[in-house]
């Protein structure tokens, strides 16, 4: 998931907390690339978590499958994180990041609870939460997706991203944790609104639009379609 911003005024420099998050992801991922036992011990794994190894819910978000996976997540975080930091500051950014990571993994745990061998890694849940938080603050942003040379309004991207995640969950497309992506975005959406309730006054219509995929997922799950 790679997206570039067209109208973006916050790139005067990365905040120290964003740098530390990126460094932690790089360091732990590199360790995992070169140490199979370390990777196996800290990845998201249903069997391990159900045996009581809850630390995997957190540590798996700092491991990646390969360098490209790591690069895409950190590249995306590099662009979106400063938007969130500029509106909420360091501490609330970290709350959104880690809450999104955990909610994303909770979604994976819920949808794969009986698949004891199911495993996953990556910061995608946390990054998805930061993306959705950034869109809530700046729905007027224009995003460029790799290989698509036209700008896409941020809110259109956000809705399409979650609809595709639902499609991926339903049809089990690719070796991708669509449920973690969706859960992370939901976490970012909810926590951001809790931390910035003034958004209800400024962007109520946009908040409603961005909630549509969440409602669709809820309905599909209740109907047993997922």
From TrEMBL:
Single biological process term from Gene Ontology: proteolysis
GO molecular function: serine-type endopeptidase activity
GO cellular component terms, semicolon-separated: membrane
Cellular compartments annotated: Membrane
Membrane topology value: Multi-pass membrane protein
Superkingdom in the source lineage: Bacteria
Domain Peptidase S54 rhomboid span(s) in chain numbering: 52-196
Main localization category: membrane
Keyword Phosphoprotein: no
Ranges annotated as spanning the membrane: 12-33, 70-88, 94-111, 143-167, 179-198, 204-220
Family in the record: Belongs to the peptidase S54 family.
Protein name: Rhomboid family intramembrane serine protease
Species this protein is from: Aquimarina muelleri
